[in-house]
Amino acid sequence: MKRLLLVVLLSGWLSACSTVPTSTTTTMVSAGAIAAQQQQLAELTQWRLRGQMAIFDLRENDRHGIYVDWNQSPNLVSMHFSHPLKGTLATLEQTSNGALLIDNDGNEYRDNSASALLERYFAVQLPFDLLQQLVLGVQPEQMFEAHYQLLDDDPQQRALLADYQLLAARQMWTAELRQYQPVATYLLPHSIDLTSAHWRLKLKVSQWLL
Fold it and tell me: Which residues on neighbouring strands pair with residue 199, listed in sequence order?
């Protein structure tokens, strides 16, 4: 794995990621409550998040971390990876023409998709297309064993995706979404956990910008 990911996160942040918010979690939610949340999220085509990301290689018992600034629009995905002491580590962009990564030395790497580029350059197997849905709480196709949560203080009683399982990038993944908070008129997760037999990704969102 390249030097991009060799930044250890503070143990205090990792502990904070495990905090469970006050909410009601249930599988007994109405189809209307699920549809209300998903229809609203479908309108959200342009957004930006800032946060901290930890990646665990479970086979090697290895843990690495980065800060991420993620911009998403219909035609461009841009991710800026950094560390407060080391500055910019790399940038990653994906368009309909493919993916481009530029490291801190100005070297350019290209591939057909961000998932392929991350796997080839960093030896990290992450389903990037799934991540774009996961961070918002959008239901992916072909998920199963899904559970939802209803926030006690949400007057609309929207059913928020809490966890599910999915086959992606040749692995079975378990996704968990926690700490939903209001952002403008939306309810968005601020703690995301994605785990397979080989990998685990934890994302702690510090700021959503819509």
Answer: 57
Cα 125 from Cα 137, distance rounded (Å): 21
Query: Cβ(163)–Cβ(177) under 8 Å?
Result: yes
What token pair was written down for 12? 């205090």
Average pLDDT of the residues in 4-9: 33
Which residue from 147, 177, 142 is spatially nearest to 159, judged by alpha carbons? Answer: 147
- The pLDDT tens digits of the residues spanning 69-93 come to 999 999 999 999 998 788 888 999 9
Task: Please answer whether residues 143 and 164 qualify as being in contact, where contact means their C-beta atoms are separated by less than 8 angstroms.
Answer: yes
Determine the 3-state secondary structure of 132 from DSSP.
helix
CA distance 43 to 164: 22
Cβ(83)–Cβ(67) below 8 Å = yes
Q: Which two tokens stand for residue 48?
A: 């930006």
Domain over 3-209 is classified CATH 2.50.20.10: yes
For residue 138, give both structure tokens.
């959008």
Please, which residues bridge with residue 201 across strands? Answer: 55, 194
pLDDT of 20 reads 36
Residues in CB range of 141: below 8 A, 6 or more apart: none
